[in-house]
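thought: fold this chain, then report.
action: predict
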Amino acid sequence: MLHARKTLERRLDAQDVRLRRKDDKGHPGYVVRGDAITIGCDHVETKQLKKHPDWHCYQDHPLKRKKPQDFLPYQKIARFRSNKTDSKFWLYYHRLGKRLSNFRVVFFSDDQRGLQFEELGSVLENVKRAQIARLEVAFDCGLATGVDCRFVRGHFLSGKCKPDSANEWGRRKGTKFIRSYFKKTIGAHRLEIQLNWRFLRTHNIDDIFDISKLAQLLPKKHIWFVEIDEEKVTEHLRRSLGAGKTIKVLKQIHSLEGDLSAQLAVLHGPGDLKNTRRLLKPLPINESVFKALKKWAKQWPTRPATLERRK
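observation:
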């Protein structure tokens, strides 16, 4: 299993290098974008949406199961695309499950611009009792930053979220799901964090006016770039294991360079160290990433705009 994963990592790294050489679009250093958002709601003014000057409904049809045993949450779907950008959204309706929202809106942003408050608001003004069910936040790193799949595997931490495959962390239906890959359309490496329903409810992120909270929630706990502090590791290992075993554990750690999760597993297992986070030191990249996150969060209002008083 480990050999198969390492083989997959080498193939993905080679593919990553080829794409980066071919698709250098001069992307800036660090940019945070909202990539996609899923919203459940009680009611949608479908007729008003179809008449909206900024959106065009190009499909409205029943949904079909790919396989007879597949679960079909909604009977129908209406697909819309923007008349101004490459954004689009899908409107699901006629639910087939009692626990589902009456309607579901899945919004896919323009790759270059990301989610925009005004654009998303033009859809939500025709929606009642909306609640975010899933939100994808993308951390895009230009080629000049040196961030790629290998760098992310060797330095990225996200709480207790563990790698599930070569460039993925967590589970798609878990609290959060993370992917690391090269985004060809923008010419940058993307670290995409998908925040699912449980995460959003735990942190009281219910509507688009709560999105700005992520600037405080994500840094360090859910997105953090670090490396092993060898001096601290050596000191703690000598105290607990002695000189002989310490050398063996250090050799294991060096052999796993480029795989932070595996290194921490060695410290926790053969190294017999409980709190391995104290043996890590943050990288300078964190400052740039968190700055980009705060800049993006400021684009999202914390409350609806109030009407000006008439004179």
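thought: worth noting. The longest strand covers residues 30-41.
final: tokens above.
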